[in-house]
Amino acid sequence: MPDHASSSHPAVQRQLDRLWALGPGADILGLGRITALLGRLGNPHLALPPVLHVAGTNGKGSTCAFLRAAIEAAGLSAHVYSSPHLVRFNERIRLAGKLIDDDALAMLLEEVLDAGGDIGASFFEVTTAAAFLAFSRAPADACIVEVGLGGRLDATNVIPAPAACAIAQLGIDHQAFLGDTAEVIAGEKAGIAKPGVPLVTMAYSTTVAERIVQVAAAADAPLLVRGEAWDFEVENDRLHYRDARGTLETPLPLLAGPHQPANLALAVATLRHQHRLAIPAAALATAATTAQWPARMQRLSPGPLLDLLPPGSQLWLDGGHNEAAAQSVSLALSEVAQGRAVHLVLGMLANKDATGLLAPFAPLAASLTAIPVPGHAHHEPAGLAATARTLGIPAADTAEDPESALRRIAARPESGGTSPLVLILGSLYLAGEVLRANDELPD
Q1: Which residue in 54, 30, 34 sits closest to 45, CA to CA?
Q2: Is 396 in contact with 388 (CB distance < 8 Å)?
Q3: Residue 132's closest CA among 47, 35, 53, 197?
Q4: pTM for this predicted structure
Q5: Parallel, antiparallel, or unpaired for β 298-299 and 314-318?
């Protein structure tokens, strides 16, 4: 599963070109190469500020966004490592709140590749080493690290004693690397557990929960499960959180979707069950309305893409690409649509389940326009359109790109005299192209 990246900065691009030439070109999970690489760099992962390590199939990025927002609302600073990027490679490494600049990024990648170009480290392993090196050299109060793939054998799983670990929503994804059952995948995600470090999780099905209990016990990690150690509910447009320390109340998240209160509550629980960062209740409440996470039920602002639709239209973007994400996003879409006809624009990587993603949207969709994902192995648009028709989506066709798709939607007879609601979905890589095309770059 190659991780495509390019840069308009010549020095950064030179290092990315080196990385493509030296790396294995595919994900090969394991901690041997990243450990060797970090050893040659002086083990920077051992010199980080308190780390919050977050795994999960869906929601881990949003959880990290809430963690960062809460830490910053407390007057503290946080480094953040996340993946993939949407538009610029720099989005993966945030130093004390700001994206790493191109000159610093180029020098870091060069240093890492010079030190370990013969190790055969993967793209993600080199990026992880560069991030940890950057974090070890810049002051910050905390470090938020998002797992890349899985957990147990993910390159980020070399930090011996995080302040806390968390697991967000679980589902079936990346089966070629993690296994074909929810229980096996849960065991891989729970592999981030560390001795004596709180492992904060959502509530899962019985068999999945049993597997996480086993892994946490084997690691001697205290397990803090929603519904047991902590819980929350939404009532009167407020989130009501409770645990052994007491209760607190926050606004509902600004991030769209009925799944986001759970991600916020997980972030709150994670911060309240660690002891290395002092985060007051007021900062946790502020995080609800200040956290931002692009391409996750993001309503796009006026720009070149939105301008292709009739005045008053809404253009939404989500990078979700599996069935669990589709369940959450379809509920969010139903809330914002409020009975209005919904038009989908879909592009998906070839290794993703198109039927699983589309089925939850079928009752909502008036049309679907399938498009390719440039530069990646993807489902053929004609095949996606055929799948949509079998699911009962009444009008399904293809287009060459997002711009062409939006023009087709604007020209549909059912769009005449109305302001359509459009959701572009199916791939974070596609989401990055959409943000670029709408002049809406993450910062």
Answers
A1: 34
A2: yes
A3: 47
A4: 0.91
A5: antiparallel
